[in-house]
Amino acid sequence: MSKNTIMFEGLTDAEMNKKEALNAIYDALQERGYNAIDQIVGYLTSGDPSYITSYNNARNLILKIDRDELLEEILVNYLGIDKK
Q1: pLDDT on residue 61
Q2: Assigned domain for 39 exists
Q3: Residue 28 · residue 54 · CB < 8 Å
Q4: What is the 3-state secondary structure (H, E, C) of the chain?
Q5: Predicted structure pTM score
Q6: Is residue 8 part of a domain?
Q7: Mean pLDDT for the stretch of residues 23-34
Q8: Are 27 and 68 in contact (CB under 8 A)?
Q9: Domain range for residue 53?
């Protein structure tokens, strides 16, 4: 049995895909007591990052995602269509 401590490292920002990042942002907003959906919609429609908490690096994560690409992905997914 090893006496050394093994360190577990979560995903780095660069390794997160958009869905994982959005889930992390959603969770951070929920944990801080915000209505996460309203806050994310506020950010997506305005571009104002102050809608997103800085808790758990959520604001930095949202700023790394292109808003137009995210909105496009959400729409394609919602409509269930193949993007060509």
Answers
A1: 96
A2: yes
A3: no
A4: CCCCCCCCCCCCHHHCCHHHHHHHHHHHHHHCCCCHHHHHHHHHHHCCHHHCCCHHHHHHHHHCCCHHHHHHHHHHHHHCCCCC
A5: 0.77
A6: no
A7: 97
A8: no
A9: 15-79
